[in-house]
Design goal:
The complex is a heterodimer of chains A (110) and B (111).
Chain A lengths: L3 E3 L3 E5 L4 E7 L6 E7 L6 E7 L4 E3 L3 E6 L4 E6 L8 E9 L2 E4 L3 E6 L1
Parallel strand pairs in A: 2-11
Antiparallel strand pairs in A: 1-3, 3-8, 4-5, 4-9, 6-7, 7-8, 9-10, 9-11
Chain B lengths: L3 E4 L2 E4 L5 E7 L5 E7 L5 E7 L6 E2 L6 E5 L5 E5 L8 E8 L6 E2 L3 E5 L1
Parallel strand pairs in B: 2-11
Antiparallel strand pairs in B: 1-3, 3-8, 4-5, 4-9, 5-6, 7-8, 9-10, 9-11
The chains are: A mainly beta (110), B mainly beta (111).
Chain lengths: 110, 111
């Protein structure tokens, strides 16, 4: 079946640096993508989303880039802070449902 | 505005026991979902309800049943719990099938 995956299961980042989290998707018919952040012991929390007719969208300290040619999605976090330590999931919308990748654990070093 | 609430937060069951996980949302969302999350894995859809009165199977429905009690409430039932159902269960809701809002989760252990 279709799947959404992340390139790296873990990412260690120095506080203050920019983080880039990558995600590959396989369903070329997906029309919507979303990034979630999950802190330990909590439910996933919405970060930012993007529709397939866009290639970039910016939020507060976060930017999502979509490259439909290679079916790649990335999340950029500017000036990474200790509070950004979490698991990050990408998800794609296909068949009116979201499919989630396995997640990337981001650890911020002081 | 509490968002999505789930009860209980923790539960331990013996193999063969039954239980119902409760979920409620106060955002007037049409769609509601149940997921399970296992270590090192993403969220897998168990069942979903696109609107009040409808339910559909997701990726991993075996061993579970659901009830969309009304627009606010969506429950998940384990009729005969098995150790393979040890997991963290999340309920979510959304206006359509876009941004989903998640509850805090129920941590279930089946011994």
């Amino acid at each position: 079946g279709e799947s959404v995956g992340l390139h790296l299961p873990t990412l260690s980042v120095q506080e203050g640096d920019n983080s880039i989290i990558n995600c590959a998707y396989s369903n070329s018919a997906s029309d919507y993508f979303i990034w979630y952040k999950q802190e330990s012991g909590k439910g996933p929390q919405f970060i930012i989303d993007i529709r397939s007719n866009m290639d970039k969208r910016q939020g507060q300290r976060v930017t999502v880039l979509l490259n439909k040619t290679v079916k790649h999605l990335s999340l950029q976090i500017a000036a990474t802070q200790p509070g950004d330590s979490a698991v990050y999931f990408c998800a794609e919308r296909g068949d009116y449902k979201l499919s989630f990748g396995a997640g990337t654990t981001v650890t911020v070093r002081a | 505005n509490a968002g999505v609430t789930q009860t209980p937060k923790f539960q331990v069951l013996k193999t063969g026991q039954s239980m119902t996980l409760q979920c409620a949302q106060d955002m007037n969302h049409n769609s509601m979902y149940w997921y399970r999350q296992d270590p090192g894995m993403g969220l897998r859809l168990i069942y979903y309800s696109a609107s009040e009165g409808t339910t559909d199977k997701g990726e991993v429905p075996n061993g579970y049943n659901v009830s969309r009690l009304n627009k606010r409430e969506f429950s998940l039932r384990l009729e005969s719990a098995a150790p393979s159902q040890t997991s963290v269960y999340f309920c979510a809701s959304s206006i359509a099938t876009y941004e989903q809002y998640f509850g805090p989760g129920t941590r279930l252990t089946v011994t």
